[in-house]
Amino acid sequence: MKYIDWRSVLLNPTQMCINAIELMYYLTQYPLDSFIDASVIMSGPRFTTEVMIDISPGPGRLLLPYAVQALYQLSVRMAQESRYFLQWGKIFVNGKQCGVIRFQQISNGRPINDLIAGSDLLGSRNSSNNGTREIYAFPDVVPTRGNYSANADDEGKIFDPKDKRLVIEFKFDNSKMRGREVFTSLLDGLAIATEHDQAEVGASVDTYSASLETSLYIHHLDSPRYYRRGLTWGVMARVLIMIWEQLIMGNSPGRRGRLPRYEGLDFDIYNDDVIIGVGRLWSVGMPGVGVSVSR
Length: 295
Fold this sequence. Notes:
- The strands form three sheets. This protein has a six-stranded mixed beta sheet with strand order 1-6-7-4-3-9. A six-stranded antiparallel beta sheet has the order 10-11-14-15-13-12. A three-stranded antiparallel beta sheet has the order 5-2-8.
- By secondary structure, the protein is an alpha+beta fold.
- The protein has four helices and 15 strands.
């Protein structure tokens, strides 16, 4: 990618990270041979910042893996180098520009309260689009301002708002981490999930933050009873977004409006009261120590 920065146009760092995570999660829901043939924008109500992936310089198609790679690279660059300002990444394939990704201010005059989250955002190789349609997708839960007097409980349970059978039992260990380390660890996990079919079973991830300070692992547990409903890659993506939204951002019911919580975390994953996976978010302790980043 070729990067272009506008340091004079500052953006909201938290919104930039939320938009990146939510868009990466959104992309996990489509097959690898899908393509983008229109603008894809992620933002949220009351946000001033958005992330956009667009076909460029004209009508065409951008395959999903290239979009995922561009989003990952620009997001890690943004977080690791504290580039919280307007920036572009031009996407090249075989020497030809085929798309662009932007962290930018929300365009003036756009009807942000009447936007569409469309399942036809990405198409198969045989479908077509005129390249002029814009699809807008929003996070299920976004931060709200309030009294920042407390964070999430030290331990407890959270439930998937889309499937109450999916439950995460968690316990924070109160070890402090840098927000960008937690962000890049989770972003890496979601990027890996885009490489798999949602129904594929046996999902596991071992990721490190971009600077290798923080590690996230989630391992599936074999359960004959739930072999076809165990820790699939679709469930893995849901687990990652639940951790981000409800535990780190503090947006589970009753916890909204609280500061992000960047701390170590142990958790178990249940489906219908049967444990199907275990996980941990923890500090490695020393930058540069550990295995290489998975991407």
